[in-house]
Amino acid sequence: MSKQTTVDAKERFAPGHRACIGCAEALAVRMVCKVLGDNVIIANATGCMEIVSSQMPFTSWTVPWIHTLFDNTAAVASGIESGLKALTRKGVCDMSGFKVVAMGGDGATLDIGLQALSGAMERGHNMLYICFDNEAYMNTGIQRSSSTPYGAATTTSPAGKASIGQFTWKKNLPAIAVAHDIPYVATACPSYHRDLAMKVKKGMEVKGPAYIQILSPCPTGWRCPTDNAVEVGRAAVQCGMFPLYEVENGKYKINVVPESLKPVAEYLKGQGRFRHLSETDINKIQQKVNQNWGKLKELATN
Question: 10 Å Cβ neighbour count for 206?
Fold first, then answer.
């Protein structure tokens, strides 16, 4: 870890949960919780991590944790943050050292919970929102979300003679968060754990809303080997499909800059959800990635 990032050995997302074999999202949650420390209250949306970690009478959480609905996670976190402020202001107890952290998958964040998240960012709540992005509604059967990449096959965007699969491009929620003029926005991936830890630490320390989107490869939904999630995540970064960057007070910085972007075909070929794509389809995706990478580099030089 970098000198600026302290990570202890304590497990706040304890083993014994029921995540799928090879789940990179469970790995990401574990890494995040090591950085969060004990003085946190977590609001967790319905989704994979809620399901696998909280089946009564068991729990994997060793810090205060609240299960929320898909659509109101940021609203619940906002209420907790306001309550902590009130307790401190009225002298009931000093909660100024606590941080509120909201967690949700891409469906609960980019789709169902977007309105509540936008409101929380607009109001300026002192909270960290973390989206664990496995690019579909994996918990309920691999249905497409607005984070599902173009061309990916899911149960609700099946590939076939009449369909390429997902026909829209991945929603750029980090850019939407930046447009709210909040202090800190970042992308991360457990394949780059030092970078991830550094960004979670920054998100915890910033005063005001912070948003981090963490790519969380899902072997079950992505149709890749269960022992390959870390490599797949690294490939997504190296080809530019999921660049790692941060935006501090509006200033962009790319954190991982490959010497040259690897072909997206190398990333796509290892996943069954893309196996139907033609060379023409792959070239179209490559052009989009090149375009987005160029825009990001331009933002980072301004």
Answer: 17
1, pLDDT greater than 70: no
This prediction has a pTM of: 0.96
Arch. (CATH architecture) of 24-301: 3-Layer(aba) Sandwich (3.40)
pLDDT tens-digit profile of 172-212? 999 999 999 999 999 999 999 999 999 999 999 999 999 99
What is d(CA 208, CA 165) in angstroms, rounded to the nearest whole number? 39
Q: Which single residue is written with the structure tokens 């202890």?
A: 8
Strands (E), 134-248: 184-188, 210-215, 245-248
Q: How far apart are CA 148 and CA 231, in angstroms?
A: 19
Q: What is the CA radius of gyration of the chain?
A: 19
Q: What are phi and psi of 26, to 5 degrees?
A: -60, -40
Q: Where are the beta strands (DSSP E) in the chain?
A: 40-44, 65-67, 99-105, 127-133, 184-188, 210-215, 245-248, 251-254
Domain boundaries, the chain: 24-301
Indicate if the alpha-carbon torsion angle 288, 138, 214, 238 is positive or negative: negative
- Is 80 exceeded by the pLDDT of residue 34? yes
